[in-house]
Amino acid sequence: MRLRTALSIVTLFLFCFALAVWSTPLRAEATLEADTDPELNTAAGPIVFVGDADFALLVKHNQKEIKLRFLINGQTKFEGRPAIGSYATVEYRPADGNNFATHVSVLPASGIQTY
Question: Above 70 in pLDDT, residue 111?
């Protein structure tokens, strides 16, 4: 009788433990970590160069205008078409001394005043 009671209690404990583990949302935590990327930066300014796999913006940094070059790959998402003189906002990820564009938003050149 004691053995049957002990086995029943152990079985009930294991069932409750398994139920608690399975009810924890593991996928939500993994997705949250993937969405918060501290290395993602943003830059905005007029486009001064457009190449086959790259483009450059003229941005102000510490009262100086500098030219930032961005590389484009198959994962880069575009809103608009980059053209010289257009104003663009770029989300990019720096890696190995290069800036890889992840999302580019381009406004047409007409009506935009550059600094």
Answer: no
| Domain 41-107 belongs in CATH node 3.90.550.10 | no
SS (H, E, C) the chain: CHHHHHHHHHHHHHHHHHHHHHCCCHHHHHHHHHHCCCCCEEEEEEEEEECCCEEEEEEEECCEEEEEEEECCCCCEEECCCCCCCEEEEEEEEECCEEEEEEEEEECCCCCCCC
**What span, in angstroms and rounded, lies between the C-alpha atoms of 102 and 72?**
8
Tell me, what's the pLDDT at 86? 92
Mean pLDDT of 75-86: 91
pTM value?
0.61
